[in-house]
Amino acid sequence: MAASLANGGLCPLSCDQVLSPAATRSLLSVMQTAGLKHHSTAFHFKVHMVPAASSSHGALLAVVPGVLGLMAFSPETDLCGNPWRALHFCQTWSRPGADMVYICTLLLPLQLLAQLSHLIQLFHNKTSM
Hints:
By secondary structure, this protein is mainly α. It has a single domain, classed as Beta-lactamase (3-Layer(aba) Sandwich), CATH 3.40.710. Helices cover 49% and strands 12% of the residues. It has a three-stranded antiparallel β-sheet with strand order 1-2-3. Helix 5 packs across helix 6. The longest helix is centred in the last third of the chain and has 18 residues. It is globular, with a radius of gyration of 14 Å. One of its GO terms (molecular function) is glutaminase activity. It comes from Periophthalmus magnuspinnatus. InterPro entries: Beta-lactam/transpept-like (IPR012338), Glutaminase (IPR015868).
């Protein structure tokens, strides 16, 4: 679902339009303003305006429109009920100059490392414009 939201409602695997562009924009707007409960505003500024939503069970869905959709899981939650490790991961990879090799080797299989590093570079290029 995260990839479909990042792709304007179009599923990148099946090429089916699972959400209309208008519904996608609306959903991303709601995620931006209320997706992380009381932490939404702070996350908005710390992670360069990336829409995100979380569950109290530890799931976090973050979307960089036109670039990537990310799903992270961390069962431990903070006082607001958000998965704190997933939030920390998003805040870390969104910083320019972040050591992505170190971050990704801790969290991902090696075959995904190059793909994620490329997507993060695209994210930094898009947010610096």
